[in-house]
Amino acid sequence: MAKNKSSDYKASNIQVLEGLEAVRKRPAMYIGDVGQRGLHHLINEVVDNSIDEALAGHCDHIIVKINKDGSLTVEDNGRGIPVDTHEKMGIPAVEVVLTKLHAGGKFDKDTYKVSGGLHGVGVSCVNGLSSHFKAEIHRDGKIHVMEFVHGGTLNPLEVVGDTDKTGTIITFTPDETIFTQTTEFKFNIIADRMRELAFLNPAITVELIDEREEDEELNKEIFHYEGGVKDFVQYLDENRETMMSTPIYISGELEDVPVEVAIQYNNSYSENVHSYVNNINTREGGTHVSGFRRALTRSLKTYADSNRLIKSNSSISISGEDFREGITAVLNVKVPEPQFEGQTKTKLGNSEVQSAVEIVVYDQLKEYLEQHPKVAKKIINKVVLAAEAREAARKARQLVKRKSIMSGGGLPGKLADCSIKDPEHSEVYLVEGDSAGGSAKMGRNRSFQAILPLRGKILNVEKAKINRILENKEIQAMITALGTGVGHGEEDFELEKLRYHKIIIMTDADVDGSHIRTLLLTFFYRYMRPLVEQGFIYIATPPLYRITAGKTLEYAWDDDSRDKILKELKKSRRKFDVSRYKGLGEMNPEQLWETTMDPETRTLQQVTIESAAGADKLFSTLMGGDVEPRRAFIERNAKYATLDI
Ligand code: 0RA
């Protein structure tokens, strides 16, 4: 076998380049984008393979390590990628897996695979997008190693030692000529995904280690949850007051579709149903979510009717969404051949899954309600209150509409609108305070920049009912200015009517400012979520310092850059003056334009959601009732100046 080794490898080398060159030429086609999101997607591609090993029952421990040199290692104790010669290709199987597109999957026919599905561009894709890639395989008593550079073989497969373990260790360095924005791995983004995987797969333990962090107490997190999705729901509701002592847990299998779901009601007003198919977060929902919703509505309605829990003289009608107010649920299904649809390919299309989920959930929920009449009654009461509040909100909404019609053009008086009407090229600044609003109005480019000053604090939507939220003046002004309407129904919120494709939150760089920013983000996330999901929300970044030296004026956005500027000035022995901007109001219109509003020079942070469950948890922590978890969170994350939702 080893005879023709060198010539064989020459041949395969050329093929590698042919195959992976496509990935290098158009990386976004394979991993979505080449920004922060795409970068972290690489990790998922590798970890998914380890998860597949776990689903097949061969792996229970995964270690993800962010290395000091910026590379990343994923280690598992699975069977190890096969190293014997691939029959058809005539090269080691591992080489096929690492260099051929879509060959990442197993050769044996596994059901419920993660890899090869939605994410399924495979490890080879990661190899192609790495400046260096190394696979170390422990299998058949030997340690096998193969190395690549830009997807091309650096060292052919060789045995480097003996071992009594099995498993795969992959280390890769993302190629900085491809990931030009950033190649820096973020602990929190990886942690959100690893935690999620650990909740969904109670048999596995995931260790996440950040070798860049010196402090041993901060550089490691271990994720392992024996309680699975039940623990997941409790984790999500950690900072909420719940209506039951433990979540309802339902599991069953129908038509080759294993279904499990954990449900808990809490005293909030939002719906948090997180759904997964083969460990993939189906953000756009799909047939499994429809099945779940139908089962929930049907079982609760039937129970309420047969126990006469809804007064017959009540005039309000209860709708599906009322059954989901204040619910936190995690729905986890496995589908042998999932069909993913929708804009982001995260909507399950398989029609057979709807009835499977509906039947399993309906039967067991019905039983649960019968066995827990006290909890059942509490839930029904909450549903009735939700229906009443929805009715009140409808009236409030009409009022907002009517008011805006009466006030002329339908736009709030405080809004200084832009002159062009094309949403795609228009932006609106939501500005904290009237004085900063004034500067922004004078400094802006009025052709495409609109300004809406917001006075003081807006309502904390995490703790208020929808009808109260809609009565709030600042929120009313925002809704009318944006033009979309508000809420969860298709007629309530219409993205097509959005009047600006950039909504820019501009607040002071202090505690109050960040509080207002969080309040606004919470509002958008809970009541206008598509704006967040589709990247319409931005955060303006005003400078923190002004440094004057003679006639020159410089700005600094953080302490490091301030110190750098000061060092240069000291070197040149010039006199200078440093002052800290306390608020936006301290800047004159020209300065505000120059530093924060001019598209040529400003930096906008686009708000994105890396993990829906992570965002949910973040907002409930930051905006929920308890002070202590909020304080702890802010302390823990104080180092990271920006909020990654
Ligand atoms: C192909 C076939 C088999 C396992 C794997 C690939 C595999 C890939 C990765 C990537 C990271 N960790 C991995 N673990 C396994 C099946 C192996 C067999 O049949 O023995």
Structure, explained:
With 645 residues, this protein is an alpha+beta fold. The protein has 3 domains: 21-223, Histidine kinase-like ATPase, C-terminal domain (Heat Shock Protein 90, 2-Layer Sandwich); 229-388, Ribosomal Protein S5, domain 2 (2-Layer Sandwich); 411-542 and 604-637, Rossmann fold (3-Layer(aba) Sandwich), CATH 3.40.50.670. 39% of the residues lie in helices and 20% in strands. The strands form 5 sheets. Strands 5-4-3-6-2-1-7-8 form an 8-stranded mixed sheet. A 5-stranded mixed sheet has the order 9-10-13-11-12, sandwiched between helices. A 5-stranded mixed sheet has the order 17-16-18-19-23, sandwiched between helices. The model is unreliable at 1-16, 104-111 and 638-645 (pLDDT under 50). 3-[3-(1H-pyrrolo[2,3-b]pyridin-5-yl)phenyl]propanoic acid binds at residues 49-50, 53, 76, 78-79, 81-82, 97, 106-108, 123, 168, 170.
Q: How many H/I helical runs?
A: 19
Superfamily at the CATH H level of the largest domain? Histidine kinase-like ATPase, C-terminal domain
For the record, the CATH architecture of the largest domain stands as 2-Layer Sandwich
The biggest beta sheet reads: 8 strands, mixed
Cα-atom radius of gyration: 27 Å
Task: Indicate how many domains the architecture comprises.
Answer: 3
Helical content (DSSP H or I, runs of 4+)? 25-40%
Sheet/helix structural class: alpha+beta
Strand order of the largest sheet: 5-4-3-6-2-1-7-8
Poorly predicted ranges: 1-16, 104-111, 638-645
Q: What's the average pLDDT?
A: 88
What is the top-level CATH class of the largest domain?
Answer: Alpha Beta
Q: What is the number of beta strands?
A: 23
Q: Give the DSSP E fraction (strand runs of 2 or more residues).
A: 15-25%
Shape designation: globular
Bound molecules: 3-[3-(1H-pyrrolo[2,3-b]pyridin-5-yl)phenyl]propanoic acid
CA(first)-CA(last) distance: 52 Å
CATH topology grouping of the largest domain: Heat Shock Protein 90
